[in-house]
Write a structure and sequence with these properties.
Blueprint (H helix, E strand, L loop, with lengths): L1 E8 L4 H13 L2 E8 L5 H17 L1 H4 L2 E8 L1 H6 L25 H16 L1 E5 L15 H15 L4 E3 L7 H23 L11 E2 L2 E2 L5 H16 L1
Parallel strand pairs: 1-2, 1-4, 2-3, 4-5
Antiparallel strand pairs: 6-7
Helix pairs in contact: 1-7, 2-7, 5-6, 7-8
The protein binds zinc ion (ZN).
Length: 233
């Protein structure tokens, strides 16, 4: 396992893009992995190569570190889950309080596949954007779930993988700030213009925080975080 090699779970959203920059800032070799689980936001998947290209063009010292991209087909997730993330139904709160965008066990599946890929690629670190601070209530974003996964993966594969979650204890405003600390306003602009967060997949409406419908829970969180980030200066 290469101590200086990392695999970033890279969806094409704001959080995973910030994680990619975080990894490029620290590790000598950084690869990315994305998952196609028939998510309704195809635009997010389409943003991935554009983001990698934009980051490589703007940051030559990171371009040297940026390695292969992998996209894994996880269509089975859509088959077994009944979620607004993979079906064309309105986004709403469920009776138990969880948003109906919840895909049960999604992050556990992602981490398992990413770990198997990291094993093959010799990467010691998995970098993922899970966040417990202003998460939408998804239980598999919580720190304990991720740490338990790290233990299970290492026991099950006889490895010493480290699951890095740089956003775990920060809020959305601090995620914008982290992007600026890592790559200045250039990176903030790339995150604003190219990343996709909106559950509705809307790229037709542009706001100061980027593109999106402006009213879904993902847009609301992103907009509020951006406003707080700018208000803090
Ligand atoms: Zn939206």
């Amino acid at each position: 396992m290469d101590e200086q090699s990392a695999l970033v779970l890279f969806s094409g959203g704001q959080d995973s893009t910030t994680c990619l920059a975080w990894a490029l800032d620290r590790f000598e070799r950084v690869e990315t992995v994305g998952f196609d689980y028939r998510q309704r936001n195809r635009v997010e998947l389409e943003a991935r190569p554009k983001l990698r290209a934009a980051i490589a063009a703007a940051f030559p010292h990171w371009r040297r570190r940026l390695g292969e991209d992998h996209v894994l087909d996880l269509a089975a997730l859509a088959e077994i889950s009944d979620s607004a993330m993979t079906r064309d139904v309105a986004i709403a709160a469920r009776a138990d309080g969880l948003p109906n965008t919840f895909v049960p066990g999604r992050n556990l599946v992602f981490l398992t596949f990413a770990a198997a890929l990291a094993y093959r690629r010799g990467a010691r670190r998995l970098v993922a954007g899970m966040c417990e601070t202003d998460y939408s209530g998804y239980p598999d974003c919580r720190d304990d779930a991720i740490k338990a996964m790290q233990v299970a993966l290492n026991l099950g594969m006889a490895t010493r993988l480290v699951v890095e979650t740089p956003l775990m204890w920060i809020d959305k405003a601090a995620t914008w700030r982290l992007a600026r600390d890592l790559g200045g306003e250039t990176l903030v602009d790339i995150v604003r213009e190219v990343t996709h967060t909106c559950y509705e997949g809307d790229r037709s409406r542009r706001h100061e925080w980027g593109f999106g419908c402006g009213h879904c829970p993902a847009c609301a969180l992103r907009a509020a975080g951006y406003a707080a980030f700018r208000a803090a200066g």
